[in-house]
Amino acid sequence: MKIIVTSCAALSLAVLFTFVALSALRAYEATTGVALHEACGGVAPHVCLSYLAGIADMHEVGLAGGDTPLFCPRLEELEKIGRGVWLYYEQNPDALEQPAALGAIQALALMFPCE
Questions:
Q1: Measured between alpha carbons, how far is 5 from 9 in angstroms, rounded to an integer?
Q2: What are the residue ranges spanned by the domains of the chain?
Q3: Is 99 helix (H, G, I), strand (E, B) or coil?
Q4: What is the pLDDT, as a whole number, of residue 3?
Q5: 78 or 49: which carries more pLDDT confidence?
């Protein structure tokens, strides 16, 4: 009986450690273009606008090092920017398969070109 209990405990630990190892590989998955398109299309507008604000913030951080700007934002209604990103995905369905950050930057570059 003691051997069976010990074997079951060892098997349980093995399964637990295997599950932890597999789930750790998926700790972060990049947001997809599909998810951002849906969020900006009205499913989760707060997620859309927060995501785009993060992109703009990181863009500003990059500019502090003297990099060339990818886009030059103007003061616009936040909802208008979200709709612009949604429209970009509507007009560029191939971008849906890319990471959302890439699609967002491409959309913002079209909406806010640097002159």
A1: 6
A2: 33-111
A3: strand
A4: 52
A5: 49
According to DSSP, the residues that pair with 99 across neighbouring strands are 32
Split at pLDDT 50, 70, 90, the class of 27 is: low
- DSSP 8-state class, residue 66: T
Q: Which residues pair with 32 in a beta bridge?
A: 99
The DSSP line for 17-62 is: HHHHHHHHHTS--PPBHHHHHHIIIII-HHHHHHHHHHHHHHHHHH
Position 7 pLDDT exceeds 80 = no
Lookup: tokens for 48? 């859309």
What pTM does this model have?
0.72
| pLDDT confidence of residue 62 | 86
Instruction: List the structure tokens of 65.
Output: 């090092």
Q: What tokens were used for 37? A: 């398109």
Dihedral sign of CA atoms 41, 43, 49, 55 in order: negative
- Distances in Å between the Cα of 7 and the Cα atoms of 2, 19, 21 are 9, 18, 21
| Residue 23: C-alpha distances to residues 10, 17, 26, 43 (Å) | 20, 10, 5, 27
